[in-house]
Amino acid sequence: MSITDWLEEDRPREKLLQKGPAALTDAELLAIFLRVGVKGKSAVDLGRDLMQQFGGLQALFAASEADLCKIHGMGQAKFVQFQAVMEMARRALREELQRGDALTSPQAVRHYLQLLLGGRGHEVFVALFLDSQHRVIASEELFQGTLNQASVYPREVLKRALAHNAAAVIFAHNHPSGVAEPSQADQNLTDTLKKALALVDIRVLDHFIVAGGSALSFVERGLL
Asked: CA 110, CA 35: separation in Å to the nearest integer?
């Protein structure tokens, strides 16, 4: 049955207008984005297939072009649209962080980092550089690969912080394993960076670990 044959209150677009986007399922939101389904499947059916195939929105939006194009009804155009939507979301959150105090907007920080790092297949180390008002000056991916004290160089982090004239910094990295728990190496690295930056009066405000759709804060855990 085509979506146009559904009761009006059950159609994704009408449901969104009447009840707001939060009332829609992931598949229904995808249906609005996809606009049309494929032969024998409505856009909602196709959305459900995508959710089942990738296991969630984060993995779907992080999928490679090759993996997405394997799905019937998907193609390069849809991949480009997904990438554009994600980048717009990241930029909107970054604008919010640039306007306000990152310490009073912890959810905005968390959501931005989840969009930035969620779904990555390898570890990435990111620094958010902040001014004296705790507004984000810049966001940089500094290191990739297996992260430890040997592969994340405090000297390079310090150089970038000074280049941005930062007063504070928030670190983040991802765990592709999906487990957000910090390792002893994560804690040692954070302590080393904190001490190095303290020498030039730059504060480390937090360190987040992004994994499995969540973001763990060192400050909230009492580790910083």
From this structure: 30
